[in-house]
Amino acid sequence: MEGFGKELARLKEREDAVVLAHYYVDEAVQAEADFVGDSYYLAKAAAGTGKSTIVFCGVRFMGESAKILNPARRVLLPDPSADCAMAHMADPAQVAAARAQTDDLAVVCYINSTAQLKAVSDVCVTSSNAVKIVAALPQRNILFIPDDNLGSFVQKQLPEKRFHFLGGHCPVHTAVRAEDVAAQKRARPRAAVLTHPECRPDIRALSDFVGSTAEIIARAEAGAEEEYIVCTEPGVLYELRRRCPGRRFYPAAPVCGDMKRVTPERVLACLREGRGEVTLSDELAAAARRPLERMLELAK
Ligand code: 13P
Ligand code: SF4
Q1: Which atom of ligand 1 is nearest to the CA of 256?
Q2: What averages of pLDDT result for each successive group of 10 residues across the chain (300 residues)?
Q3: Do 231 and 274 have their domain in common?
Q4: Both 16 and 46 in a single domain?
Q5: How close is the Cα of 220 to the center of ligand 1, in Å?
Q6: In angstroms, what is the span from residue 70 Cα to ligand 2's centroid?
Q7: Which ligand approaches the C-alpha of residue 147 most closely?
Q8: Residue 24 CA: which ligand 2 atom is closest?
């Protein structure tokens, strides 16, 4: 979109706003954002901003987390209907039932979750800090919601813990098929396979590296290989190509349609018209803040 950067700068100044963007959104939005990163980096950036308005270029749970950590600030979502399907794949009633049935239990909630799920959890995690945080918990039993795949990735590294799952998954990452990745590997035998832990265990098993989007980028920057097969949402290829010119990146996952709802036009419109404001009741925000702040503390 022509003139996007200039108009965004004008509106940011007028509205005293900062723009945060996840690696999965439109390239033009990433190019103009003040902070671009993975979920953990963006949660920290949101918690540390001095601006009165935060424009969160991502899906709903990201805007909600920013609001929970910044109750006095205005948080705008360019498209409030952009949601993460997995964020809803557990129910507070299931959490209550697990607590009633299991002793010595910690409820660990992936940040890709509704505020209602966070509110009934003991601690939040992101894909880049989940192992560290679960390892630091005193409880032996871990109810890991809502992503079974990230949960099983953590479980492999912490055999001393007993994990319980409720069956959630990311429809984008679980669409990656082992036979397709194997075929890409045969076609490019020197390529390294970089994978997000939301992918199924069989994809992780044939990968050279598994990590969050920011960790995937860091691995490619540090890696000796010239070619990479990337098993996460292809929006990340923008930053990979920017940081690693001359290397070749091949996407292996489909796009997340919800992340792609964040367009330059919608970013400008939300700031211009004050649309898409995230609102949460004080009670819900206070209950969901505890596990998020505990995450920021334990991940330090
Ligand atoms: P990151 O923790 O890598 O940002 O992942 C977020 C996400 O939505 C993955 O699908
Ligand atoms: Fe949610 Fe998956 Fe989209 Fe990430 S890629 S926002 S987990 S649906």
Answers
A1: 10
A2: 95 98 98 96 88 97 96 97 98 98 98 98 97 98 98 98 98 98 97 98 98 98 97 98 97 98 98 98 98 96
A3: no
A4: yes
A5: 17
A6: 23
A7: 2
A8: 5
